[in-house]
Every structure is written in structure tokens, then in C-alpha cells.
Amino acid sequence: MSRQARWLSIGVGLLFMLSIPLWVTSSFYLRLVNLSGITIIAVVGLNFLTGETGQISLGHAGLMGIGAYTAAILETAHHWEFWSGTLAAGVITTAIAIIIGYPTLRLKGHYLAIATLGLGQILWLIFSNWRSATNGFDGIGQIPEPHIFGFSIANDFAFYYLITVFVAAFVYLAIRIKASSFGLAMIAVRDNEMAAEAMGISATTHKVLAFSLSGLYAGVAGSLYAHLFTYISPDAFTLDLSILFFAMLILGGLGSILGSMIAAVFLTLLPEWLRFLDQYYMVLYGAIIILVIVYMPQGIMGVLKNWRRWKLFRATQPSEPLHGG
Amino acid sequence: MEQIVISGLAMGSIYALIALSFVLIYNAVGVVNFATGEIVMLGAFLGTTAITQLQLNPVLAYIAACALMVFFGYSFNLITYYPLRGQSFLPIALSTLAASIIMRNVALIIWGANPLSMRGVLGSGVWHLGTVVIVPQNIVIFIVTLVLLVLQHLFFTHTRWGRMMRAVAQDQDVAKLMGIKVNLMIGLTFAYAGFLGGVAGLLVAPIFFVTTGMGFAVAMKAFTASIVGGFGSIPGAIVGGLFIGLVEILGAAYVSSVYKDAFAFIILILVLLVRPQGFFGEKIAEKA
């Protein structure tokens, strides 16, 4: 793509994004769009750990829950503001991710999967049973609406723009981090840990940092989630959500930020499109995941890449013979 | 106290069987089967249907349920592992997770959301042995587990098929060079793992409520047990299972029953920090 074409497509994309609330008039669908935005933040965060550093986390819903509960408790019981509550959610989730990450990230693959699965479960137990703080299964309601520069973000229309700003900022940050030397070091750890260590890259440090970054994203996503729904309960942060995040990463194509964003939106909307299937939906959802892994091992981005290569191939085919490579 | 220890060890035997189910698969193909809990659940539901709903002869019912689980284990391999063999850990982990979602929801559609209960082979009363009260199902659990472990040991060490399966677990390439049908052996390992999970489900059904969520709870403890015992180690899975069973029930009795499910994980974290290779295991921080 030429420089102008790239800027043009970014501009068109931006306009499209900004116009969404104007033509998605159903508040129900706008709520789903907002939820997709929050999911994008969480999944792009998880991508640091799973996509770029190659480590698995099946406890990510728990981290998002920490963010949601932190913001909810501070703002309902202690009357904090949206910004300070969200900041605290991000900071506390990051801190807990570091504390959790240090012992568990020394493990690999399966062990890490099982350890994070257990941690997600412990966090769920704490949300459900620490009644004095989390109100147990009754959950926390009446989470105050954000006030920003005198505007109160009280409906999904206003929320859309708030979430868009957050998504843009966090995705931009993710792109910059991925392109930085730190991002390259994480990818090196994923591709060959021993070689990375030989180059002077500490694998454990990079894994813990990737995990804490994904914790920051999960914490902020959790806080936004709490404000969007104004009510949270332990059942919002179960293993199923962790699996969903993981499925979004794989479906998008491991390591691709754009792919995980597309998959996050797709898998958030899919249950609504297939609502008529009722309880059969979850069966189909599981089957779709297996089919995708088997037939699209590189995910959505892999398909797009192949398609582009194929178009390029067709365009060059008649006029000149293809040279090797 | 005695009752507590007995039920802890009985639950521990169940964990040991489930831990074995996925240690065997892990050894054979290097993959953790995250649907192990749902295999246990399926065994329990099949047993409940056969015995409580269809009123079959118990012997016939148990045999039918076990046979179905063997068949299921083999099919499970064909759907979730075989098409992905040779891929890395992440996609295969997701594939077994997706299988667990499918199984849980199919069970929900077939058996509904209400908990079912199953009668044990020795009835549902209790026995009094002096001052000690014994739940007969616990004795059944001990006996079945013990017999199964002895048979399994004999099978793996003294039969041709058992040795072929172990050879595949040790080195697939060399096994193939020796003329062993590697994919068939892997399929059989999955079938046997399905059988083990099914037996665990049949054994645990009379002392638990049979629900679609039961598998996850027991499988998490069994995962923990196998890490505590030393991942990949068969004696480790057994000792770890008994250990977790005891810790859990003692913790529930003397510390807090609400956080009963958390004790296993606290032990897990402690073990990972202090002795990550477990009681008997390999050094897990270094194994890919």
C-alpha cells in the first residue's frame, strides 16, 4: 500500500468507527458493541502473554474480575471517581499479576495452564465468598456512572466514545510495545527461549513483564466492564470467559493484534446472531473452535495473508513468470 | 477423625484415577487433556442412566457404561487430538477445552440441569464398626481402585500390548521403526484413559450429586494431584491423589469449609515454589 492509501484507509476506518453509534440505533446492539470494545482491550492484553511470549493463561477472567471489583468497591463504598477507580484497578491488577506471575511463570506450557486455571478458580472463590467486600453472589450494584470533563457517561451512546478512546489508546500502546526492542525480546522468548537467554534476554523477566502488562489491560477492561453494566457478580468472571479470551487469540491468529481484535468482536457478536439455537449454541461454539483450529491453524490473519498472496500471485501470473521466493 | 481420614482417602483414590487418566495421555502424546473432568462426568451420567433410570442389572450396567467410555475415549482422540497431532501445545490445549465445553453442554441438553443421584452397589446406608461410621461406597472405591491399579501394572509390564503402548510413550519414532502402529497405540491410550475417567465417575457418583459441573471440580484436584506427585509419574499420580484427598478434607474439617476447593491450589502453589518437580517427578521448569 502506498503512503496515501494507508492514511486514506486509516481515515475511512476511523470515520466508520466514529459513526457506529449513529446507525446502530438499538441500545441492545450498542451494548454489545461496547462489550466488544472492552473485550478487545482484554484480548489485546492477553496477546502480550500468549501471542507474543508464548505463555498460556487460563485465569484471565479472574484478573479482569480483580479490576472490576477494585473499581466497583472503591467507587461504591469509598466514593472514588471514575479515573482514580480505573487507575487503581489497573495498578492493583498489575501488582497482583506480578505477584502471581513470579512463581507460576517459571513453569512451562501445561503446568502454567493448570496453575493459572487454579488461580482463576481461587479468585472466583474469593469474589463469591468474601462477602464483606464483594457482597458474595449478590454482587455489587449501583456502580456510579463516569463523569468526564463535566459530561456524565450515562448511556451506551456516550459509553461508546469513552470505550473507543480507551481501545485506541491501548491498541496503540500494544502496537508500539510490539515494535519496540522489548516486544522483539518477548517474541524471541516465545520462539526460542534458550537462544533468547544466550542473547542476554532474561526469559523469566520478560514473561513476568508480559503477564503484568496483560494484567494492566485486564484490570482496565474490568473497570470499564463494571461501569458499563453498573453491576458485577462473580458469575461474570468464570473459566468460560478465560477460555473465550484464549479462543479469540487463537481464532485471530496468535500474535496478531488486528486478528485478535477482529476475533474479539466476532465472538462477542456470534452468540447474538445464533441466539435462536438456544442451548445448542454452546455445543456449536465448541465445534466451531475445533474446526477453526483444524482447518485455519493460522487463524483469521492467516486466511487474510493467504488470500492476499493468492491475489498477488494472480495479478503477476499472466504478464511475468514468478521468480522463486 | 477416622471417618474423615477414610473419606479423604476415598476421594483421594478418585483423584488418583483421574490423575492417571491424564498422566497416561500426557506421557503418550505430550498433551494435557482438559476434558478429563468431563469424561468423569460422562461416566457418572451413563452409570446413573443405566442404574437409576433404566433399572438395568448393576453388573450389566457397569459393564455397558465402561464399554461406552472405552469407545468414547477412542473417538475423543479421533476428533480432538488426531487431526492436530504435530501441532504445538496451545492449539491442542484449546481443542480439548472446546471438547469439554461441547461435552458439558450436550450433557446439559440430555440430562438437564437438576442434580441426579445414583445408588451405590452396597446401598446407601452406613456401617458401624465400633465407634467408627463407614460409608460402604468408600470401601468399594478402595477395592476397585486397588484392583484396577494392580491390573494396570500387570498390563503395562507383562503384556505385549502394554509394552507397545509404553514404547510409544517413550519414543514415537523408535516405536514406529520397531513396527509398532503408533497411531493405534495412541488411540488405545485415549480409550484406556476414557475408561479410567469413566470408572472414576461411576465410583464417585453415589457419594456426589451427578451434575454437569462435577467434572471440573474433581479434575482440577486431580490436575493438582498429578503436579504435587510429580507430573508424568504414575506412582506420583497415585500418591498425589491420596495426599490431595486428605489435605482437602482435613482443611475443610479444621480450617474452613467454604474455601475447601482452594486448599488444593494453595498446596499447588507451595509445591511449585518449593519443589516444582513434585514428590517423584521430572524437573518441570526445564521441560518444554
General description of the model:
The complex is a heterodimer of chains A (325) and B (288). Chain A is an all-alpha fold and 325 residues long. Chain A has a single domain, classed as ABC transporter involved in vitamin B12 uptake, BtuC, CATH 1.10.3470. Helices cover 76% and strands 1% of the residues of chain A. Chain A is built from 14 helices and 2 strands, in the order ααααααββαααααααα. Chain A has a two-stranded antiparallel sheet. The model of chain A has no long low-confidence stretch (mean pLDDT 88). Chain B is mainly alpha-helical. Helix content of chain B is 72%, strand content 2%. Chain B has helices spanning 2-29, 36-53, 58-81, 89-111, 136-158, 160-170, 172-177, 182-204, 214-229, 234-254, 260-274; strands at residues 127-129, 132-134. In chain B, strand 1 and strand 2 form a beta hairpin. Chain B is globular and about 60 Å long. Mean pLDDT of chain B is 87; it is low at 284-288. The chains are: A mainly alpha (325), B mainly alpha (288). Chain A binds chain B through residues 50, 54, 56, 58, 103-104, 106-111, 113-115, 117-119, 121-122, 125, 129, 239-240, 243, 246-247, 250, 254, 279-280, 282-283, 285-287, 289-290, 293-294, 297, and chain B through 26, 31-32, 34, 79-80, 83-84, 87, 89-91, 93-95, 97-102, 104-106, 108-109, 216, 220, 223-224, 227, 231, 258-259, 261-262, 264-265, 268-269, 272-273, 276, 284-285, 287-288.
Summed up:
The complex is a heterodimer of chains A (about 325) and B (about 290). Chain A has about 325 residues and is mainly alpha-helical. Chain A has helices spanning about 5-25, 25-50, 60-75, 80-105, 110-130, 130-135, 155-180, 180-190, 195-200, 205-230, 240-250, 255-275, 280-295, 300-315, and strands spanning about 145-150, 150.
